[in-house]
Amino acid sequence: MLWFCAGTAGELIKVYPLLRMATERKLSWFMLSTGQSGINFFRQWDDFLLPRERVGTLVQTTADLHTSQAAVHWFSRAALTSTSDLRKTVFTLSGQLPTASDTWLVHGDTLSTLIGSWYARRLKVPLAHIEAGLRSDRLFHPFPEEINRRWVSRLAQLHFPQDTRALENLNRARFPAISGRKICTEGNTLIDAIHYMNDDFRKAGTAATLTASGDAVAPYVVANVHRFENLHSPENWETILQVLERAAKKHRVKLVLHPPTQEKLAKEPGARARLEKAGIELLPRQPFRSFIQLLIGSEYVISDGGSNQEECHYLGKPCLLLRNSTERIEGLNGPCLLTKFQKHAIDRFFAEPGKFKGPEVFFPRSPSSIILDSL
To answer: Are residues 180 and 201 in the same domain?
Structure first.
């Protein structure tokens, strides 16, 4: 039995290919939501057309966590859940309990990754970590992701790094060394999710250049900024606003709002007014299927997200990456330009965005199939 434990839509997107392949292989699986994203997680679940009878929530929440205070409250509740209550909830949701012959899988570096790993230890189930080994080599940057990664690596018995760099990070760790099997997936499971979506689009005859609402549009740019260090840095935030205004002078800009960005604009009506004055379209957060359609049809992407960096790399889509650093190597020598918020880098991208366009990426083997084969 495969037990998947996740709490955010981002985790679910990268785990989705495993769920789909496991179903095709007639493997038994169940998804346990930590409750970190009480609304968007299940919105994405339904967007993928996954069966509701194979998912349940361990810690009940009534909303996505928009603020640090809400996140701390949820994390405290989740961490303090007793082992007996945890076992009772898992049994109630799934009709069975995990055993030592099962595998408990977590993904990435969110607070849910850490909570899920702690639950596996308490239930005495072997833990597998997908997308293991990413490191910034700075304990508090990004926060709390870097701390989560390091803790989870020491709780897991099976590690799935996505490339040789991540594998080397695991191998060189000391004090203590990271134990367990380490299997490189030769890529991120996200590419499998993208290929599944493209296959679905082709079968449905869906045009890639349609918006989420299905309306044909002129050339446009997709923007997606939501990182904590950017929203809370006056200098970075001002640069982001200027970049969006600059892009809007030549193209329609569709800014997809994550909950933290919505919160930021609600607290700063002046910033929202600037975006609206520039003609920037503010969209609610999109399910993955709609978001990939938007990416495919766009001229280029403005983002501060690691997953967007990977998506643009796999699609060959030019991406202006508004970050000081990234732990991911995908696309950095191709369609993705890491700006480090330097003006000359931003100017270079805007001079000719199309110059950064690359080919669509394919892997010899599916990363998700490598994981399932090893399990």
So the answer is: no
